[in-house]
Amino acid sequence: DSLVAPHFFQIVVQDGRLFGSPIDILNRAAPVALLAIGMTLVIATGGIDLSVGAVMAIAGATAASMTVAGHSLPVVLLAALGSGVLAGLWNGILVAVLKIQPFVATLILMVAGRGVAQLITSGQIVTLNSP
């Protein structure tokens, strides 16, 4: 690829920020990499969790909505982490207490979680404007 597009690996510093294809790839890959690390641990222990994307959507919707509403960063982070913990607790109760198979229990939150995220944002796209 570097023969076809020689500037592909170029990184430019502009206004104190880094720009370039490698930076874009790292920025876009970070959330997926975090989920993949967590899922590796789940699968390594013989478990399964289909709801990780929905839990991420719930936590993201919580964080974005609270940020737009003007809450401070510590409050936003605690609320986002709390929503993720509540979702995990829900899955844990379904599996450990109600004895539902993990595949089915996490499938429930996978489907319902996207709807919960839509409810949090009132079905609107939440945009954040950074300075």
Automatic annotation (TrEMBL):
Topology in membrane: Multi-pass membrane protein
GO molecular-function term, one example from the UniProt record: transmembrane transporter activity
Chief site of localization: membrane
Keyword DNA damage: no
Localization terms from the record: Cell inner membrane
Keyword flag RNA-binding: no
Family: Belongs to the binding-protein-dependent transport system permease family. AraH/RbsC subfamily.
Entry protein name: ABC transporter permease
